[in-house]
Amino acid sequence: MKPLTRDEPRDLRLQRWRRRLFAGFGVLLAGIAVIGAARWYFVSLRYVSTDDAYVGASMAQVTPLASGAVLSVPVDNTQVVKRGTVLLVIDPQDAELQLAAAQAAYGLALRKVATYFAEVEARQADYDNAQLDYRRRAGLVKDGAVSNEDLTAARNNVNVAKAALDAALALTQGTTVMTNPAVLAAKAALDTAALNLTRTVVRAPVDGIVAQRQVQIGQWVQAGVPVMTIVPISQVYVDANYKEDQLGRVHPGQAVTLTSDLYGPAVIFRGRVIGLAGGSGAAFAIIPAENATGNWISVVQRVPVRISLDPRDLLRHPLLVGLSLTAKIDVADTR
């Protein structure tokens, strides 16, 4: 193309400027098309992404296993706790009394069963003496030194002693003092009372953050009624809701990169697909969609995909339950 000169007519110069402008615009469009095609080939075909993703966790409900008045609540909402941290102390007086009663009952059971074994020894001695007396009298009957009536009485004594021995053995046979059913029952009651006393101190079941505390000092708590929640922020996961037409090549084990609104795009979280939910979000709604009315409009459904997060990333940048993220799955990952 010839360069423009001031000697050329004005219309000719304008036409040449227009041709250059259109040529440059065409090159720009071609470049955009090439970039778009490359992005589609290398990115869109390899990754599926969604910004409909949220942090979740298997939260631990703290539920007392004993009833009573609350003496202290040494933790509050937002407090970080370790597993075993004391969360709640219930008045132990009732449990202590029950333990004392169980200890006394166990001691009595030991003594009572010990008398059973002593009784066996005494009845065995009576039976042995009765047999010896019977044999001695039986040897004297022929000489007339002992009458038949005396022999019959001795035989009856043997039978009575044998019955008494059998009755004593029935309480002890096949056992020792410690394995006797009466002692075992008392020991079980003692262990239960001791366990109930330990349950007056409620401890954190996992590491996490205290949330939804619903108990105060002096309040009466019931066994089985939740009083607070522990959120295990080191074990959070992500539920990403993908459109059904994005899931054709998604499977467990694939790599995922995530960014959060909390930290911005500069912080990248690494994860792995754990699995897909058993149905779409609409399928598990309280009032599921009605498909059989004849007025159904097909809508692309979303299916939750569970994603695990790298614990090292969570350690550096903790995430809270309910925060939103953007998740991108590498569907080319075939592992």
Folded structure, characterized:
39% of the residues lie in helices and 24% in strands. With 335 residues, it is an alpha+beta fold. Among the domains are: 60-91 and 199-231, OB fold (Dihydrolipoamide Acetyltransferase, E2P); 94-197. The strands form 3 sheets. The protein has a 6-stranded antiparallel barrel. Strands 2-9-7-4 form a 4-stranded antiparallel sheet, with no helix packed on it. The chain has a 4-stranded antiparallel sheet with strand order 6-5-3-8, with no helix packed on it. Strand 11 and strand 12 form a beta hairpin. The longest helix has 48 residues, at 93-140. The two termini are 56 Å apart.
> What is the N-to-C succession of helices and strands?
HEEEEEHHHEEEEEEEEHE
Average pLDDT across residues? Answer: 87
SS content category? alpha+beta
**Radius of gyration using CA atoms only:** 43 Å
Low-confidence stretches: none
Main sheet record:
6 strands, antiparallel, barrel
The spatial strand order of the largest sheet comes to 1-10-13-12-11-14
Brief account:
The protein is α+β, with helices and mostly antiparallel strands.
List keywords for this structure.
335 residues, alpha+beta, OB fold (Dihydrolipoamide Acetyltransferase, E2P), six-stranded antiparallel beta barrel, four-stranded antiparallel β-sheet, 5 helices, 24% strand, elongated
